[in-house]
Write a structure and sequence with these properties.
Blueprint: E1 2-7, E2 13-15, E3 24-30, E4 35-40, E5 45-48, E6 62-68, E7 76-82, H1 84-87, H2 91-94, E8 111-114, E9 119-125, E10 136-145
Antiparallel strand pairs: 1-10, 2-3, 3-9, 4-8, 4-10, 5-10, 6-7, 6-9
C-alpha cells in the first residue's frame, strides 16, 4: 500500500458548491478501477473553507466525511468534524503535529475501506457557500492496487 493525498486539485476530485445551512456535498472522489482506498483512524483532514469574498465559514459548521457505493442514494457518514478546530489555524499550522489533535478523524475499528468505483464524499453544513478559488482541503488515504486473476 502507498499513501495518496486527496485534495481539491486531485485529478479524481469532483468539486461542487454547498447549499448554505444544509448538509451538502462539496467534493467527491471515486476510487478508480483496480484500486481500493483505506481511510485510517486518526487521519488528519486539513482545510480552509471560505466564500468568494474570502470570509471563512463559522466555527460551528460541520465537515462530514462519508462513503457510498455506486448504487447508494445517500452517503454513509464515516466521521463529522466541527470547523472550530480549523478556524484559528492557518494551513501551515494544520501541518504541524502540535495542532493536529482536533483535525483527526475518529473511525471505529481502525478505518474504512473504499473499494474500486466506490466514492468518498466530503459534505459541509455551513452558513456560507464556499468558493473553491478561496478554499482548500487535503487528507491522505492508503492506496492499494488490486490484482485480478
Amino acid at each position: 500500500m502507498q499513501r495518496e493525498t486527496l485534495h481539491q486539485g486531485h485529478n479524481l476530485a469532483n468539486l461542487s458548491n454547498n447549499i448554505p445551512n444544509i448538509p451538502s456535498p462539496i467534493v467527491t472522489y471515486t476510487a478508480p478501477e483496480r484500486v481500493s482506498w483505506s481511510i485510517l483512524d486518526k487521519t488528519v483532514v486539513k482545510c480552509k473553507l471560505r466564500d468568494a469574498g474570502g470570509i471563512e465559514i463559522d466555527g460551528d459548521s460541520s465537515l462530514i466525511i462519508a462513503g457510498m457505493s455506486p448504487s447508494d442514494r445517500l452517503p454513509n457518514e464515516i466521521d463529522n468534524l466541527t470547523y472550530d478546530a480549523y478556524e484559528n489555524l492557518d494551513w501551515g499550522q494544520q501541518s504541524s503535529s502540535l495542532f493536529q489533535e482536533d483535525l483527526k478523524l475518529d473511525i471505529v475499528e481502525g478505518g474504512v475501506v473504499i473499494p474500486e468505483q466506490h466514492i468518498i464524499v466530503v459534505m459541509l453544513d455551513a452558513n456560507l457557500e464556499i468558493d473553491w478559488n478561496e478554499s482548500q482541503i487535503s487528507f491522505n488515504v492508503q492506496r492499494e492496487r488490486l490484482a485480478y486473476a
